[in-house]
């Protein structure tokens, strides 16, 4: 076999792509993976999930150190606390570097051939890789497109990644802005906004919709906004940003009130544009292949991840479903299993969504609004963390657990949580829902004391009966 002939070529080495490549190699396929960045891991590892979580952790530690009500009441006091931002950013880069090298190691261990360069699909079996104006062509029996997503732009706003930034620029600011305006109250905007608020910036969020976190359960979103307001984040809801310009080292934004068409001017040191993401498919040559793409830019696939060209598959953010790294990983595994003649499937209703603020927000399954829209009768159980002994003991009482179950069968249909380590705790309910458990099933399982997980037990009790501790 030629050195440039592969059973499978994966385009994109983000969470979906590199996982697909490794799993395929483990199954005995001859695999190559093409990545246009110099480092593996995609947006998530290089300029997304991992560096943002490092900053979220560091900023939380910093704020906890400077808050008198967070430490002195415990008998812990400091003479002086200071922030060395360059050192913090260096630590973040070190974490990213270690993890990208880890994927390199896994590629070598599993004999995945790595190509660095921009990929263009010439035909159903040929891929051109362009690197430093030098092109080479490789061949593949099967192709998986896993090129992820990119930030959505707004008209009349030019991003320079210095003063007007996307999440990429927000991870690299060389000083703490006095004021940051976040355009968009989605997950990324709220995460990055809270990072810089903790580090000392005044943060105001401008959102087009009359609420934050579109798609999240209303009760959870409303409660979470109150928590963020209590922390000092300001919100201007039902407002659109019409224009942004940089004048005298300041960002001036013209915003319009959607309800009365009144205009206002806002000024900030940095504006973060965070209005969602879109599939990243440009430059792949899909138009010449006549590969079907929908009106939103997503590649159309069947239930087997096959595109309109039967030997070309697509996974992750370039197809429909939650635009999340872990969803892309599951897509990658399932697609490779199908290619290998096995059964592969991903239930997008059981993909957890997590917001890594403090407190965290974690959700899985149906929202209350979705159940109402679908005409499903349901029971609801809630439990506040202020009544949880572990949350009390560690001073993390902001938040709640909410469980929704089918009224006739008690099967859990949705679970939603605000709280410390909610992104970890929610997986108890992910597993329960994966096995079709009822709220009573969860409530009757012995939970260790004292743990935050006991709040899940209590919410489950409240869903079909009554909570004990509230």
Task: Please characterize this protein's 3D structure.
With 470 residues, this protein is of the alpha/beta class. The chain folds into 3 domains: 217 residues, FAD/NAD(P)-binding domain; 112 residues, FAD/NAD(P)-binding domain (3-Layer(bba) Sandwich), CATH 3.50.50.60; 106 residues, Enolase-like, domain 1, CATH 3.30.390. The strands form 5 sheets. Strands 1, 2, 3, 4, 5, 6 and 17 form a 7-stranded mixed β-sheet that branches. It has a 5-stranded parallel β-sheet with strand order 8-15-9-10-11. Strands 18-19-22-21-20 form a 5-stranded antiparallel β-sheet. α1 runs parallel beside α10 and α3 packs antiparallel against α5. The longest helix is centred in the N-terminal third of the chain and has 25 residues. The chain is globular. The mean pLDDT is 96.
């Amino acid at each position: 076999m030629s050195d440039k002939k592969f059973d499978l070529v994966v385009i994109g080495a983000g969470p979906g792509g590199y996982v697909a490549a490794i799993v395929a190699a483990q199954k005995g396929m001859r695999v190559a993976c093409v990545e246009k960045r110099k480092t593996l891991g995609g947006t998530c590892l290089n300029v997304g999930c991992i560096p943002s979580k490092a900053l979220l952790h560091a900023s939380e530690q910093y704020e906890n150190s400077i808050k008198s009500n967070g430490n002195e009441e415990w008998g812990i006091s400091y003479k002086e606390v200071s922030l060395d931002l360059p050192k913090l950013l260096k630590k973040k880069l070190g974490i990213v570097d270690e993890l990208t090298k880890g994927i390199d190691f896994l590629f070598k261990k599993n004999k995945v051939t790595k190509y660095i360069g921009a990929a263009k699909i010439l035909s159903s079996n040929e891929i051109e890789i362009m690197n430093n104006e030098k092109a080479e062509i490789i061949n593949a029996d099967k192709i998986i497109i896993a090129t992820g997503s990119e930030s959505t732009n707004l008209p009349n706003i030019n991003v320079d990644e210095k003063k007007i930034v996307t999440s990429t620029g927000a991870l690299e600011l060389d000083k703490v802005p006095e004021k940051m305006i976040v355009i968009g109250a989605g997950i990324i905007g709220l995460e990055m906004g809270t990072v810089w608020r903790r580090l000392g910036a005044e943060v105001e969020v401008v959102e087009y919709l009359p609420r934050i976190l579109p798609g999240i359960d209303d009760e959870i979103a409303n409660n979470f906004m109150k928590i963020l307001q209590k922390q000092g984040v300001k919100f201007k809801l039902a407002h659109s940003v019409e224009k942004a310009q940089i004048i005298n080292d300041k960002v001036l934004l013209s915003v319009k009130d959607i309800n009365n068409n009144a205009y206002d001017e806002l000024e900030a040191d940095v504006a973060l544009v965070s209005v969602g993401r879109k599939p990243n498919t440009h430059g792949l040559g899909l138009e010449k292949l006549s590969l079907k793409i929908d009106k939103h830019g997503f590649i159309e696939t069947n239930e087997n991840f096959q595109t309109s060209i039967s030997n070309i598959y697509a996974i992750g953010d370039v197809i429909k479903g939650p635009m999340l790294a872990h969803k892309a990983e599951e897509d990658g595994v399932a697609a490779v299993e199908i290619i290998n003649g096995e059964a592969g499937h991903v239930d997008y209703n059981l993909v957890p969504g997590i917001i890594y603020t403090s407190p965290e927000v974690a959700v899985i399954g149906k929202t209350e609004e979705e159940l109402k829209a679908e005409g499903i009768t349901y029971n609801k159980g809630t439990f506040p963390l202020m009544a949880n002994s572990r949350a009390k003991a560690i001073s993390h009482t902001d938040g709640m657990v909410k469980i929704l179950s089918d009224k006739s069968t008690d099967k859990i249909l949705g679970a939603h949580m605000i709280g410390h380590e909610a992104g970890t705790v929610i997986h108890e309910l992910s597993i329960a829902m994966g096995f079709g458990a009822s709220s009573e099933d969860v409530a009757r399982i012995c939970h260790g004391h004292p743990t935050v997980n006991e709040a899940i037990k209590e919410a489950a009790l409240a869903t079909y009966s009554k909570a004990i501790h509230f």
